[in-house]
Amino acid sequence: MNLSYRTTNVTDSTGNTNTRLGTYVKEDGTILSMGEFLLQRDVANTLDDTTLEFSTEILDMPEVAGFGNEASWVSDT
After folding, report:
1. b/e for 18-54, b at 16 or more Cβ within 10 A?
2. Which are the contacts of 26, defined by CB distance < 8 A and separation ≥ 6?
3. pTM of the prediction?
4. DSSP for 22-71?
5. C-alpha dihedral sign at 14, 19, 24, 30
6. Which residue has the higher pLDDT, 66 or 19?
7. Every domain of the chain and the residues it spans
8. Spatial separation of the C-alpha atoms in residues 66 and 72, rounded to whole Å
9. Cβ contact 70:45 at 8 Å
10. Separation of CA 43 from chain center
11. pLDDT at 70 over 50
12. Highest mean predicted confidence (pLDDT) among 2-11, 35-44, 49-58, 66-75
């Protein structure tokens, strides 16, 4: 693996950005490329699949809607 790289900062059609591009050499001498990517993501619109248990005291409080990485405090009962 070559430790040198070049900065690219090229964004593709899906919004992912290739920030660096480098190379590595296979045992047979073939030179291949590798890159670092910043993947497009929307942290405000996430899906939380965590099941939370709340006490009756908490469930009696006003509802707090979740946003981003924060779960919604909504009673299922």
Report:
1. eeeeeeeeeeeeeeeeeeeeeeeeeeeeeeeeeeeee
2. 32
3. 0.50
4. EEEE-TTS-EEEEEEEE----TTS----------HHHHTSPPB--BTTBP
5. positive
6. 19
7. 1-41, 42-77
8. 4
9. no
10. 8
11. yes
12. 2-11
